[in-house]
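S1.2 Input.
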Amino acid sequence: MATSWVNSAERIGSDLHLELTGPGGRRAALTRALREAVRSGRLAPGTRLPPYRSLAADLGVARNTVADAYAELVAEGWLTARQGSGTRVAERAEQLRPAARVPRQAPPRARGPRHDLTQGTPDASSFPRTAWLASYRRALQQAPNEVFGPGDPAGRIELREALTEYLARARGVRTEPGRIVICSGFAHALRLLFGGGVLRGPLAVEAYGLGFHREVLAAAGVRTVPLPLDEHGARVDRLGRERAVLLTPAHQFPTGGPLHAARRAAVIDWARTRGGLVLEDDYDGEFRYDRKPVGAVQGLGPEHVVHIGSVSKSLSPAVRLGWMVLPGRYVDAVLAAKGDREAWASVLDQLGLADFVVSGAYDRHVRRMRQRYRGRRDRLVAALAEHAPHVEATGVAAGLHAVLRLPPGSEASAVKAAAWQGIALDGLAAFRHPDTDMAAADGLVVGYATPSEHAYGPALEALCRALPPP
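S1.3 Output.
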């Protein structure tokens, strides 16, 4: 069907006729028509387009049809969209038109992202090199000769003692050195527990979580069963016949928010009654901003929880060290799965981390980074309030990332627009369990800890340019 742009002369200073025909439905037809109008010069660079509500009414199509077409053209660079100035034909759109009588050239090589807003990594430029070197040097100088032989698979006693004190003080964990086993991180812990035959599936998991962890479990032959989420965290009342559940109770990943106190108690009661086990992923428990500290679930039932942590968020993923705080009945089985010698976590790094914790340098680093990341979080919220007040940031009371909630159906185009702006980030759908029946939500997962200080401002500006208009 051919549809005219009603009152277009009043809006753009020319009479524009859009042909909404061809394959792919009305949205694809509108996208092609607008792209051709720009390419042909009928829509000049800088021309302001009507609000999508108005154009939808003029053309007799759904608002989402126009909004999605605009978003796709923004992602491709034909249009720009900024809060307060509407949607316009991009000034660089002329460069996208095919030039006459110019020999065809090979396409340019794809450029990597200029702005890294992916979740899960701290600011690498903030690694405490001087303090870490001092701890490493002290640990090396004081190390007994046995350190340079085969390592104990449980981990160095110096580190296990340091962690016993630190986790009790900072996370409310109740344990002793003999119930801590050092590993190289959370994924390694999963491989030891399931790949080593200590535990068997099925395993209940949260409906949104890291796909990489599900892949590790699938490789070990473990079937995962998704639990829906709401504003109070995982719906632990939906636990079925599973004998174990994996949770992120301090700060649900990626949606944000702690597991409600009543549900913490309920999942411990479930574990006691059913002989079940809770796997507690304490991935960024140290970073709290606007709420009181949330203790570890392990403190409510030490014999029913495996508490797993690492320094990948608090210090650096380059320091390949993590820990499992185990119920006593699982210690021997985990050590048997690990083997007779330490094959994963460097003994010298373990000694360096032990000194780093005991000397107080770890606490000082966490406090400094907590203040810095809180400032990053505040700048993100302020930028949204100024440039995109229609976009809500959630899960910002703790952690290293925020979820920007988007209108239904706009996530894919927003991820495209972010890529066009040179931003590396993830959409919320990337973390959704494929078998969940939980209603899907659209959003962007923005890691505000990843960029260095000097790079964070430009990254925020690019992010605001990529967000869909209201």
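S1.4 Remarks. The CA atoms of residues 415 and 427 lie 6 Å apart.
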